[in-house]
Amino acid sequence: MSNPGFRIKKQIYRPDKTLVDSFKSIPVANIGDNMNRIGCMNSRIIPMNSAPLLGCAFTVKVRAGDNLLFHKAIDMAQPGDVIVIDAQGENSYAITGELMILWLRRRGVSGLVVDGCIRDLDVVRKLTDFPVYATGITPNGPLKEGGGEINFPIMCGGIVVNPGDIVVGDSDGVVVISPADASDVLIKAQAHNAKETQIKNDIENLTWDRAWVDAALKAKGCEFVD
User: Which of 64, 59, 178, 165 is nearest to 112 (CA)?
Assistant: First the structure.
């Protein structure tokens, strides 16, 4: 019998690793711009260190202030996964801290995104190879009463995240890409990168063509007054 709100899905689809790895070094902003600027998590989700994020979403929904399901998730996630937690934005309790994060890192998990708080920031800040994103910091530890789901669709940072979605993060924030869209998004984002490289060269050489600005203003009916 189905038990929504307290259930675990054991198997998920993960896209080809080559496709996932192709997003390495592409800025989140460039990816987001080529998803019509609605694919990025909102500004509540901030980086806790400078490690870049890339992997497949392993989704967890927990009851506010409770991390029992997350404890199960850290033993289930595979190398290359990014655990993405809907902690309902709870800011009174940390969902995780040093020990769980070090365990994830040791097991080859690629990162952690929490719509909620963490603790042990001094340790997390020093991790150069394990990215952590969250909404904030609090020393209060979580409860372990249960309730929640693993590997079902969740909401994190204002974005629906499905198990197996490609998750990319940098200092600007986090973007989520459906595997079904990933190949097309990748082509657009790579072209965007190439265009920005050319613009940077034009800026350096003082040759950046800015005529489009006045053209756009005139097309929209802007009045120019001497």
Answer: 59
For strand 132-134 and strand 111-115, is the pairing parallel, antiparallel, or unpaired? parallel
Alpha-carbon distance of 186 to 175, in angstroms, equals 13
Domains of the chain: 10-188 (3.50.30.40)
Per-residue pLDDT of 38-49, as tens digits, reads 999 999 999 999
Contacts of 187 (CB under 8 A, 6+ apart): none
Residue 162 in tokens? 């499905």
Mode of pairing for the β-strands spanning 94-96 and 46-47:
unpaired
Model confidence, pTM: 0.95
